[in-house]
């Protein structure tokens, strides 16, 4: 038996044995990728006669059986009919569920972040892991850990928001859950997009990142570092963008010096789809794809997705001419093979349909799906105790573009969004430029055109997800004695207001109005937000504000429900309506969960993972602004002081980070620290009590912030230290205990070294970054330099 086939030998020995046996062409095949899109499963020998290292999963079919058949046939061909029998690593997206037919679809990542609940993220990813494992997909191109502070950027919906500590905690939970306790039964997580991808010029996807060296490391690299240190992250995907004049996909500084050198990453780096092509066009830092491939692999890229363009057999000429070292190619191959051996792919690369079906359509998964949705709903405003609604309502009007639209439940990078994109491309008559290469050209008849989704898309999604309900349908089931009336009134976007009068008439005759507003998340010309769907405007799309004004003029009891990946940035709605709920994209069971929250079976408990701007002129706006910047500095020392910030408006945001109301009330008391004077290597315990003093059972998200009172570098006004979700029955109180590593207070000094600095740190506990209830001060006794890889990333908390 060849050594590489012996599962009892160490991974390193198996890798080196296999590497020594491989031809140049076989090595290149291991660092490239295959994606096929066809009605039938292809004859793989026609595509990959020497094998392939990586495969973009076939995911769209009427049932899961053809998907399993594809993976099974692929691996059997590779194992039994190629010279060395190396199985492929098959990948798919998974941020809100494994992206294939019949898999569960959970709320979008921005909704997950709104729960501030890492436990449910871990439970969700355990389900995703099992479904991917048994379908034969062993790499997830998730999570997205980009820090986003510009809602013009359409990919905000895929992120965990603006804060590095919250994103770190969510990323760590996701990676641990999907990779599992034993990697041989796990799925590789791929954190993306390294790094700074969410901060682009003009809010345009894939543009230049305007990020300082300090912010890049302290903020944007932090979730990656946390996932590496805490969760053993195995794979990273590069950013599409350029930083300081270098495209990240071709930047040795980013992919090797920082990621591997400073951060200690040991896994492999994959290119985002077509990002290597961008070295040629638009970046124009390489004359051709051969040069692009050389630059990328020398920079530290290990695998090219989605097909061989820069990483090709032509690299042999560069080896022979001395332009490229064979050692560099071997290093990339070695990293790929290492993960395959660690996953146990050489022992069992095959899907298992029988076991897969045991993990599809589980009641426990459906219950978790609904739980995450319910925890994500964020009550922004509730004046005059408008909510919860009474189940004795006789007539309720459900109006607006999302009232009876199943597509509104799902965000970008979900399976329903893939169906939408696929069908919309077909209707547009778009063909594949290359076999297996999906490019969606946004072809508008006029600037700003956004077309409505075809009714056949909604019919297809409803057929695929028979247990999902539109809000209107869910209400009819939930309130069988009530009269539920519906009128769309207005499209999600565009100028068509032909149905407005009908909707107003329907609403006028109801006891309560549920007004649904917001954008549509996805790809292409039928979406208002999504990948490559960026906007100069963050307000309600189309004529929705006009519709909202007309509804308000009815002076009826109205609840506003905002569906979107962007938060609600509309001052009229925020200031005029009594009850406003951020619904996000709540997933398969979102409507059922929403009914229970609206009618008081469960109190809303979501909190905003972003600061919400009043308008696009305030951008960027976020709570962690450095001292002297933005709304936190308005009116401070200067020759001319303006406490409003702007001459024509306030600099204060519409809603603050961490904001989220409940049907009940919570009080905070008795904050204590276990020590007042602390050393750089200490851990501080912070305790306080939270009590439910209202009339409903409910959950509170207790948030702990810190502020460096005086520092040698300009620091944020405050930073999130940690958070914990606490369920309290009416009248109940519990103690919260946070444990903070003092190293979490570290920052990069003027020499870019990680430093815990002597001085006072203020600790602040509350319900949002602005709603601070308790505070105390601790003093760090001395300066010390630390290892940034092992610093504190977020405070751990327990409830007792």
Automatic annotation (TrEMBL):
Domain Fibronectin type III-like, chain residue ranges per copy: 700-769
Keyword Transferase among UniProt keywords: no
Enzyme class: hydrolase
SMART domains assigned to the protein according to its UniProt record, in alphabetical order: Fn3_like
GO MF assignments: beta-glucosidase activity
EC number: 3.2.1.21
UniProt keyword list: Glycosidase, Hydrolase
Domain of life from the UniProt record: Bacteria
PROSITE patterns: GLYCOSYL_HYDROL_F3
Pfam assignment, any one: Fn3-like
Keyword Membrane recorded: no
Record-level GO BP terms: glucan catabolic process
PANTHER family in the cross-refs: BETA-XYLOSIDASE (PTHR30620:SF123), PERIPLASMIC BETA-GLUCOSIDASE-RELATED (PTHR30620)
UniProt family annotation: Belongs to the glycosyl hydrolase 3 family.
UniProt protein name: Periplasmic beta-glucosidase
